[in-house]
Amino acid sequence: MTRGEPGMTRTASCPCGAVRLELSGEPIMAATCYCHSCQEAGRSFAALPGAPGVVGTDGGTPYVLMRKDRLQWLSGSDQLDEHRLKPDSPTRRFVARCCNAPIALEFTKGHWLSVYSGRIAEAERPAAEMRTIVGDRPDGVELPDDIPNYRTPTGKFMWRLLKAWAAMGFRAPPIEATKGYAG
Question: Would residue 20 be called left, alpha or beta, if left means φ above 0 and alpha means ψ between -120 and 50 degrees?
């Protein structure tokens, strides 16, 4: 199948291949986030031995947002650690212990999973459609105007999430993965 077909599947994986996640169908969207939390988490991950980077030189973290009901762990979910910036944070990031690769971010009460774009093969990776929370980008970073740059999550962003949630019957299925806190 080619990119853009409704029945398309993509695979997200860590660099060593031990952790693999199948993504079915079209993503909700592909976006790059500039929030302080994504930057902080990215710096933390970059300090891990051998970890691939997730934050670009401009401070942005590219994601592909997928409905949780269109995900399936193919292998390695037992190799995942959970990373939260604060113990009571409503977001958790999954990191593969085998090679310290960040895999995805979950808003635990949400209906989507934000997969780090770098975990998807370039040929299958959707291009970013927008940049969000650009008001938090590092000082001095100028962004191109090739795609929209939004200071905050916009109505378009929220509408796409709402449409996906409605298509899921307003459910938020749990992500079956290791729930251990890895700091």
Answer: beta
Please tell me the pTM assigned to this model. 0.92
pLDDT tens digit sequence for 85-118? 999 999 999 999 999 999 999 999 999 999 999 9
Distance CA 51, CA 118 (A): 12
Strand order in the sheet with 91-96: 80-83, 91-96, 101-107, 112-116, 61-67, 29-33, 130-132
Q: What is the CA 160 to chain-centroid distance, rounded?
A: 16
Distance CA 117, CA 107 (A): 17
Residue pair 163/170 in contact (Cβ under 8 Å)? The answer is no
Q: Distance between CA 103 and CA 119 in Å, rounded?
A: 6
Cβ–Cβ under 8 Å, residues 156 and 92 = no
CB 114 within 8 A of CB 65: yes
* Residue 104 near residue 114 (C-beta atoms within 8 A): yes
DSSP E strands: which ranges in 80-142?
Answer: 80-83, 91-96, 101-107, 112-116, 130-132
Tens-digit pLDDT profile for residues 37-53: 999 999 999 999 999 99
